[in-house]
Amino acid sequence: MRITWLGHSAFRVEFDDRAILIDPFLTGNPSFTGDRAAVSAGVSHILLTHGHGDHVGDTIDLARETGAVVVSNADLVTFLAGKGVAKVEPMNTGGTIDLGGFTVTMVRADHSASLIDNGISIAVGNANGLIVKAPGQPVLYHLGDTDIFSDMALIAELHEPKIGLVPIGDRFTMGPKSAALAVRRYLNLDVVMPCHYASFPGLEANADAFAAALEGHPTRVLAPRPGETVEVN
Questions:
Q1: How far is CA 20 from the centre of its chain?
Q2: pLDDT in tens, 129-171
Q3: Which neighbouring-strand residues pair with 88?
Q4: Is the entire prediction scored with pTM above 0.90?
Q5: Domains plus CATH for the chain?
Q6: How far apart are CA 85 and CA 78, in angstroms?
Q7: On the CB side of 138, how many CA atoms lie within 13 Å of its CA?
Q8: How many CB atoms are located within 10 Å of the residue 101 CB?
Q9: Which of 111, 42, 115, 107 minimizes the C-alpha distance to 80?
């Protein structure tokens, strides 16, 4: 599995002959300096953890340009369909859908969700984490935006994720110490990649404190630069 961090909480994930985007916030993302066309090349699906502008990002334009299917909670994809997104797959917390070659499960996250439309805040369902499973690939868990919660242990028991994309930025999500505690106490991961940091003022500027809090733990911390691709087997 090849994972490219695009800055903030945006990722491109490739496995087998698939390429998917998660929370593709590119325009306005101060950490993203790459080529948008290259990032979206061959993408078949766009997965969204929740409805905030820094996660929905370029979804509408990318879906139109690529023909990708947008997958998220029913409220959010209904809103996006009304904005012209042609292909959507609605789901909700606890549900799993088969997308042909891989499945996605929505799990709990502790956060809010809304989008601004013509100056009005519109509720677009709950915030979620995403579990991505594909045959022969390690199970991927994008936690979305969240605080630590003890039911992460149940998520780990049910889905056995081995790669975690974990927010550490503080202010809007858990900070480095809480995120590291979540990894230590609740998640039995092989690899963890921090996200939702080093993008905006008020967020953690780097992953140093997170990595230090996991020193000596068997989970391997990978903190690529924005635009860098890592391969995890």
A1: 11
A2: 999 999 999 999 999 999 999 999 999 999 999 999 999 999 9
A3: 70
A4: yes
A5: 2-224 (3.60.15.10)
A6: 9
A7: 20
A8: 13
A9: 115
Interior angle at CA 79, CA 165 and CA 90, nearest 5: 60
Structure tokens at 121: 């805040």
Q: In what order do the strands lie in the sheet with 220-221?
A: 96-98, 103-108, 128-133, 140-142, 163-167, 191-195, 220-221
The number of residues making up the chain comes to 233
Q: What's phi and psi for 88, nearest 5 deg?
A: -135, 150
